[in-house]
Amino acid sequence: MDKSQYNFEEFNTLFYPKHISMIGASENSKFGSMLYLSAFKNSKWADTFYPVNPKYDKILDWKCYDSVLDIPYPVDTAYISLKIDVIPKVLKECVQKDIPWVIIFASGFSETGDEEGKQIEKELKKIIEGSNTRVIGPNCLGPYNAETGMKFSFTSPIGTPGPVSFMSQSGGHLTQLVDIGVKRDLRFRYGVSFGNQIDLNCLDFLKHFHHDPGTKVIAAYLESFGSADGHDFFNELKETTKKKPVIIWKGGYTSDGSRAAFSHTGAIASDFKLWEAMIKQTGATLVKDNEEFWNTIKTFEILFPKYIPKGRRAGIITPGGGNSVNMTDLFADNNLEVPHLSKESQEKLAEILPKENVNVKNPIDLGAYGFVVDVFIKCIKIVVKDPNIDIIVIPLWPHHLFNYVFKRMIKIQKGTSKPFLFCLPSIADSFELAKKFNLARKILNKNRQLYFLSLRDAANSMALFCDYIDYLKSRNIQIQTD
Amino acid sequence: MDKSQYNFEEFNTLFYPKHISMIGASENSKFGSMLYLSAFKNSKWADTFYPVNPKYDKILDWKCYDSVLDIPYPVDTAYISLKIDVIPKVLKECVQKDIPWVIIFASGFSETGDEEGKQIEKELKKIIEGSNTRVIGPNCLGPYNAETGMKFSFTSPIGTPGPVSFMSQSGGHLTQLVDIGVKRDLRFRYGVSFGNQIDLNCLDFLKHFHHDPGTKVIAAYLESFGSADGHDFFNELKETTKKKPVIIWKGGYTSDGSRAAFSHTGAIASDFKLWEAMIKQTGATLVKDNEEFWNTIKTFEILFPKYIPKGRRAGIITPGGGNSVNMTDLFADNNLEVPHLSKESQEKLAEILPKENVNVKNPIDLGAYGFVVDVFIKCIKIVVKDPNIDIIVIPLWPHHLFNYVFKRMIKIQKGTSKPFLFCLPSIADSFELAKKFNLARKILNKNRQLYFLSLRDAANSMALFCDYIDYLKSRNIQIQTD
C-alpha cells in the first residue's frame, strides 16, 4: 500500500474486521486484556478470534496459536499485548502474514524518555516500511466502532450509533468519551485511540473521517501530530471544515501540561500558539478540557446541520432575577448577545405577566410565574417567534423536571429551526434531584434535546457553535442541510 | 440611631429577633408568603409572631391585627408583603411603633424603571429619616440565621451552622446558596438578601460581618453599592480582608448583564473595571458565576485558616495519562504549578510502580495501578511528604467511591496541613454513579473534606485561595490560625 495514496476503503477492515488476532493473550493478565478477551468471547467475533501465545494451547475455550503465522485464516487486525522487547519479532510475523492493521497496546516506548523505547519505535517503523501492514500505536487502545460494538476499551457499554467520529491520542480519554456518550446519548460512529502515532496518525484518520459520508462531526484529542506533518494536517483540516465541523482538544497546552503529555505519549512540545493559530485559520473548534470537549461535541452533534442559528442573539427565559443576570453575564461574556425583544413581543409578555418582579425585555424573568407551567409555555412561544432572537435558552429548576412540562417544551422545539438549550444546574449534589433528573434525562435524550448541567458550559458550547457558523459564512461556504 | 455611628450589637435583634410581625399576611397568597407563614407556625416564633391584615381576625390560628400599632408587644422585625402604594402608610406606623428592622419584600420600585417606583422609594427613605427604624430592601427576602433557623426563603432546609456569613442583592441567589449549602455541607452563620438597598446596604453588612467574631468567611452577591458609598466600601473591604476573606460575585459584569441587573434590583450600571480594580486592590476575591461562587466559598470555608498552602505547587495523583495531562493543563492554566517531585520521592514511587504507562515525576500517573488501593495510598503518602508540593490533588474514579478507600485517604489528610482536593468528575450524568456518590458524599462531608464535581472548578477555586494567601503575604499580614 502506498502511504501517500490512501485507499480509504481499506480502512473498512480496520473498523469492520472479521478475523481478529490477539498476540500475547492470557487468562492471567491482571489488567485490561483479560476483560477484552471475555468481551470478545461474547461478541460476533467469537468464532473468528485467534489468541496467540506459545505458553498456552487454549484460552477461554479458543484454540491458542504459537504465532500468527500458524493461524489458518487471514487476519484483518492483530492486537499486540506484549512487553516491548519482543514486539519487533512479532510485528515481523504480522508483516509476513500480510496483516493490514496491527494495534500495539504496550507502553514503554518514546514516552519514557529512555533511549531503548525510542530505538524500538524506530525498529518497528523500519519493519513495516514498504509492507502491507500499518501500525496503530503503540501505547493505545486502537479502533472503536459503535455500530458493531467493536472496541478494546473495558469500562463502557456501546450507545446508540450516530454521526460523531473521533480520534484520541489517549486511550483513557477515548474510554471516558464513550462512557459519557452512553450517559448523555452522544452518538458515535467510529473512534480510534492511537497513542504515540508512530505510523498511522491524526492526519490519516482526519482524512478518513473527512471523506466518510456517515461522519457528520469530527472530534479529536491530540497532544502532538505524531508522525504526521503539521502543514499537511493544516491543509486537510481547512478542507474538512468546509463540509463538517472538527472539534480539537489540544492536551498539554500549558508548559507543565506539555511535560505531562511527553510522559504520556512521547508528544514533543509544540508551541500552543501555533495550534491556536492553525485551529482558528482552518475554522476548527478548539476546546481545552474534558467537560468542554464533551459538551461541545454534544452541541455540534445535536445542532449540526439542522439547527443553524441566524446570529448570536439569545433569548433567556427563566424565573428569578439573580438567575437572569447570571445567565446574561455568562452568555454575553461568551461572546453571545442577549438583546431586547421586539416591542411586540414585550407587549405580549406584559399581557401575561404581572408588572412586579419580572422582566419582559430579555432576559425574560418570569418571577414567581415561572412556576406556572401554562404561563412559562406561553412565554417560550412568544420568544421563539421573536425576530430579534436566534437561540432559545431555558434554564430549568427542579420544579420543571416533569414529563408533562418537557412534553410541551419539546413540542415547541420541534416546530422551530432555532437552537434550543435546556440548562439544568447543580444536579450532581443531590441524590433526590439526580433521581428526578434521571427520568427527565430519558425524555430529553429520547427527543434528542440539547441540555447542559452547567450554565457556563451551555454558553461556552453555544458560542463555539456560533463561531463555526460565522467562519463558514465569512468564507461564503454553504451548509448542506441534507 | 445615628446612621454614621453604628452600634453593631443592635444587629442582634435583626439576626435574633423575638417578636416578628408580618404585615400583609394572608392565607390566600399564591406564592411565597403563605409558605413563610406556615414555616413560622412550626418554629420557635410561633408564640411571638403577629400577622397584620385588616381583612382578617385570624390567620393560621394566630390573632391577626389591623395594624402594627395594635400589637400589644414590642416588635423586633416587621416584614411587609403588600402592594407598593400602601407601603408608605404602613412604614410610618412601624416608625411610630419604634420597630428597628423593617423588611420590604415587595418589588415594583426603581427596578421597573418607572417614575412611580422611584418616587415611592424616595418617600420611604424620607419616612425613616432620623427615626429608630431601618429598612432592608425593598425587593428582597431579608435576614437569615443558620443557628436559629430564621429565614424567609421557602425552598431549603437549614444545614449545620458554621462560619460563613453572606449578603445577596438577590433573594433567588440567597435561596440557591442556602440550598447548595445544605447539599454540599457548606456551613453558614448569617445571611441577608437586601434587594434595592435603599437604606441598609452592603457596607452596613460588610462592617457587621467584619467585626462579628463568629464570621470567618464573608461572601457577597452584589449588583451595585445601593445606598452605600463606593469609596467607603473600598476602605472597609481593605480592612476586612486583613482578618478574613471576602468573596464577591459581581452580577451584571457584562453590558447585557448590567441591563438585566437594572431590571432586577434597579442597580445602576457601574464600570466593571472599577469593581475589578477595587477587588484586586483590597485583596478580596472576585467570582463571576454561580458554580464559581459556591465552590470558592466552600474552598475558603474548609481551608481557612487551618490549611494554608506554602505555595502554589500542586501534586496530582491519578490513574490515566490523558487525565493527568488534563488536570495539569487546568491547574497550570489557573496559575498554579505542577512541578517535578524531589528525586527522592520519584525514586520511592518508581519502587512501587511499574516502568510502563506511569509517570513518577508529577502529575503522578499511576497507570492501571491506580485501581489498586494499597498502591494508590502509598503513593499519596509519598507525595504528601514531598517538600516540592504544597497542595494535594486526587482526581477520583468511580472505582474509588468506597468507604474503605476514603477512610484511608482521609486519615492521610488529617495528618497534614497541606490542602487536599478530591475531584469527582462527571457524576451528574449517571443515576447509578449519583447513588454511589451519595454514600461517598456523606463520608466526605462528615470529615469536612474539600471535593469538587468538576476538575476546572477545583483548579479555579484553589487558585483563588492561593491568590488571597499571596495577597496577605505581600502585605506582611499574619494569619491568625486560632
What does this molecule look like?
- The structure is a homodimer of 482-residue chains.
- The first copy, chain A, folds into three domains: 8-135, Rossmann fold (3-Layer(aba) Sandwich); 142-303, Rossmann fold (3-Layer(aba) Sandwich), CATH 3.40.50; 314-474, Succinyl-CoA synthetase domains (Rossmann fold, 3-Layer(aba) Sandwich), CATH 3.40.50.261.
- Helices cover 40% and strands 16% of the residues of chain A.
- Chain A contains 16 helices and 19 strands.
- In chain A, strands 9-8-11-10-12-13-14 form a seven-stranded mixed β-sheet, with helices on both faces. In chain A, strands 2-1-5-6-7 form a five-stranded parallel β-sheet, with helices on one face.
- In chain A, helix 10 crosses helix 16.
- At the A-B interface, helix 5, helix 8, helix 10, helix 11 and helix 15 of A face helix 5, helix 8, helix 10, helix 11 and helix 15 of B.
